[in-house]
Specification:
By secondary structure, this protein is α+β, with helices and mostly antiparallel strands. It contains two helices and twelve strands. It has a six-stranded antiparallel β-barrel with strand order 1-2-5-4-3-12. The N terminus is likely disordered. Belongs to the MreC family. One of its GO terms (biological process) is regulation of cell shape. Involved in formation and maintenance of cell shape.
């Protein structure tokens, strides 16, 4: 800015000197200049200065105006981003609420539970262990929950109770590697053992004869064999893939849970206790 002002300032000083000179001459020689001539000279001298000053300050004014506009635009962008973030949060909360409502409504209609007493419960956390896939519910022995009780979601089996306090219970998920569930295939009625394989991995079903017809997407249910850990007929898993390797002694079957176990909010505890802990 100092460079912009330097030239107009020096020019103004020159004009002042010239103006004083003209005034002095006019006093000493009144007829030396006519009024029109002086006015014309002054105009010719002032106009360049005015143009120079305007030219010097015009970019500065534009810069100031541009800076103000930019700050206003930034403020508007920040406001819009905050509004978008709030809208996205509200949408996620709405989706979560809809999902929880769907879980609750499906838990109200469990035709395969039959006459088994049901205890609704809310999932309040997961166990802090990488060695066990389990979660904690807000109902315990005070509500009639006992070790061995099957736990279901709206889609079917999710696990069984393995530990109980008076107000909470720990549920071992069917995907845990230590979980074994006796299942029955549709159509053929063959019985196999469904074993968990850990977080994110499909479960496997063993003890099925090679060549047994089984389509992808078929639903397996708990076998309910005498001494088993679960009553019969509970939807347990959906078939993901089936293969029959050459000379294999059993069919290779992979299955997945009927619902996302990581997003469970509500479950039902079936107050059913196995007659023996040795079966599946």
């Amino acid at each position: 800015m100092s460079r912009l002002l330097a030239r107009p300032r020096s020019t103004l000083l020159v004009l002042l000197v010239v103006g004083l000179t003209l005034v002095t001459v006019s006093f000493r020689s009144p007829n030396a200049f006519r009024l029109g001539t002086v006015r014309s000279l002054v105009t010719d001298l002032v106009n360049p200065v005015r143009n120079a000053v305007d030219g010097a300050f015009r970019p500065l004014a534009s810069s100031v105006r541009g800076a103000v506009d930019y700050q206003q635009a930034e403020a508007e962008i920040r406001t819009l981003k905050a509004e978008v973030a709030q809208a996205e949060l509200a949408a996620r909360e709405h989706q979560a609420a809809v999902a929880q409502l769907d879980q609750l409504s499906r838990l109200l209609h469990l035709p395969w539970a039959g006459s088994i007493p049901v205890q609704p419960a809310e999932v309040i956390g997961t166990t802090p262990s990488n060695l066990q896939l389990s979660f904690v519910i807000d109902r315990g022995s005070a509500a009639g929950v006992a070790v061995g009780n099957p736990v279901v979601g709206g889609g079917g089996l999710v696990g069984r109770v393995v530990a109980v306090t008076s107000s909470t219970a720990t549920v071992l998920e069917i995907t845990d590697p230590t979980s074994v569930v006796g299942v029955r295939l549709p159509g053929s009625g063959q019985v196999g053992a469904m074993t968990g394989r850990g977080l994110g991995a499909p479960m496997s079903v063993s003890l099925i004869q090679p060549g047994t017809p089984l389509r992808r997407g078929a639903i397996l249910v708990t076998s309910g064999l005498q001494g088993g850990l679960f009553p019969p007929g509970i939807p347990a898993a959906r078939v993901r893939s089936v293969s029959n390797p050459l000379n294999a002694l059993q069919e290779q079957i992979s299955v997945v849970p009927l619902q996302n176990l990581s997003s469970l909010a509500y479950v039902d505890v079936l107050r059913w206790v196995p007659t023996s802990g040795s079966g599946a």
